[in-house]
Design goal:
1 helix; rod-shaped; single chain
Length: 106
């Protein structure tokens, strides 16, 4: 009967050690899981921030494209106006020269 008590006691101690080892492994696994979840949250947050930045860049790009289109239209109008003024000035210069030449001949 002493053997049964001894074996029972040894099994209890062995079971307690196994339970302690299993508990430590479980705690380590839970810590690793918690760290992985936190890293995933950080990655998701970074991903969301990146998506927001990309969306803002897209909006800026659209706005800048519209502004560029407007600037190009204005530049073309200014070039046209500049050509018209240049043509008028050339015509006026020719007229003035002809008047001056006529005045000198007379």
């Amino acid at each position: 009967m002493n053997d049964r008590v001894f074996n029972s006691s040894a099994m209890t101690e062995s079971s307690a050690v196994e339970i302690e080892i299993a508990t430590r492994r479980l705690m380590a696994a839970l810590d690793a899981l918690e760290s992985a979840v936190e890293r995933r949250r950080d990655a998701d947050r970074d991903e969301n921030e990146l998506a927001a930045r990309i969306q803002a860049l897209g909006a800026d790009r659209s706005r800048l494209a519209d502004e560029l289109d407007g600037a190009l239209v204005k530049a073309r109008k200014l070039e046209r106006t500049n050509r018209e003024i240049s043509d008028r000035l050339d015509s006026a210069i020719v007229t003035i020269r002809s008047v001056l030449d006529t005045g000198e001949d007379g």
